Amino acid sequence: GVEVGPQPQGVVRADTLDKMRKIVKHGLDFVQLFNEGREFPPCTIEVFKIMEKVDYPRNKNDEVIAIIHPKLQDQDWQPLNNGDPLFLTLDGEVISYAGDCTVYPTFINEAAYYEKKQAFVKTVKMKLTAKQIRSSVL
Fold first, then answer.
1. Contact 131/45 with Cβ under 8 angstroms?
2. InterPro entries, per this entry (predicted)?
3. Which one from 3, 36, 46, 63 is the annotated catalytic residue?
4. Do both 76 and 107 map to the same domain?
5. Vertex 115, ends 9 and 2: CA angle to 5°?
6. In a shared domain, residues 26 and 50
7. pTM for the structure as a whole
């Protein structure tokens, strides 16, 4: 499957649809070239590995007591460092990130994850290396 976003539920955005079409076309081009026997050299790509789902701060009654900080909103895939603001309490207090490494949050404040108690997901950036490949069916 291909998921391209973020975009609100029930909304079709032209820019997001265009990105999805390009991704699917690249995938189909790869399959065609692979099936034709094209050899693909080794490569290294950067990926983001999910580390942890982070919930909104809650009180003893399990009620949300803070919202996503304005500086974090719409910053998916951007580095989040120790001391950067995460949440803003309803009383105006800033809750900062207290981590030992830089992370890359995603799915920040997504409506679809609110009921799942997920304010965002912490990811870490890493590199993966793929060996060369060629179809053996020729």
1. no
2. AspA/AstE_fam, Aste_AspA_hybrid_dom
3. 3
4. yes
5. 45
6. no
7. 0.78
Integer-rounded Cα Rg, in Å, for the chain is: 20
Taking the C-alpha atoms of residue 114 and residue 39, their distance in angstroms, rounded to an integer, is 45
Going by C-beta distance under 8 Å and a sequence separation of 6 or more, which residues neighbour residue 38?
134, 135
pLDDT tens digit string along 62-86? 999 999 999 999 999 999 999 999 9
Chain segment 54-67, per-residue pLDDT in tens: 999 999 999 999 99
pLDDT confidence of residue 6: 66
Which runs of E-coded beta strand occur in the chain?
Answer: 43-54, 66-68, 85-89, 94-96, 104-106, 120-130
Please state the domain count of the chain.
Answer: 2
CB 44 within 8 A of CB 129: yes
Q: Could you list the residue range(s) of the whole structural domain that residue 61 is in?
A: 43-131
Q: Is residue 2 predicted with pLDDT exceeding 90?
A: no
Task: List, edge to edge, every strand of the sheet that includes 120-130.
Answer: 43-54, 120-130, 104-106
